[in-house]
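HUMAN: Mind sharing a backbone?

ASSISTANT:
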Amino acid sequence: MNAIDSATVTSLRPVWRQVLATSYRALEDSVAGVRPGQEDNATPCSAWTVTQVIQHAAGDQLAYAKMLGIGAGPSYDPFSPSGTVDGPATALVKEAIEQTATAWATVSDDTETVPTPLPHGDLPTPVAGVMCGLDAAVHAWDIAIATGGPSPLDEELAGHLLAAARQIVEPLRQWGAYAAVIEADGAPSATPVADELLRYLGRVPR
């Protein structure tokens, strides 16, 4: 794995907790916006349905929590979601986020590195926190796009997420966690940073 650029760590250190909180709200809001009958809608996230993306996103958060010493992790494989949820999907996501938020609250501001469920292992705390937020925020976008909701990615949030992604994502493509970068089509956009983030993660901005 490549070393993490120290300038990126420094830039994310003052903002990583806010990035996490904003990303958590984005995921909860997108899931809350799913209307009856939309649970099986196709999403931009591979061949998964809305419910499968929700399961995956919740499972990833629980995996971060476990690595930080809280909870037992997901009871299912987040990379093979069933597409069926017992009870409201909002409750599944809320529980996962609360557990992971509790885990991150145990991490002090002067903690240099923390363990992660990523193949990279331990990462600088600000980068690990923002990558945890990236997972929530990008799947919030997947769900919103699939259900006709507004994009949860504003330019400020996208900029912080992109900074961390550029340090971490490349090795993950070989495992299929992210698709190849999509080149810009040259069309003007009101959200160029968010669009760059999405293309970098193998998604077509819409």
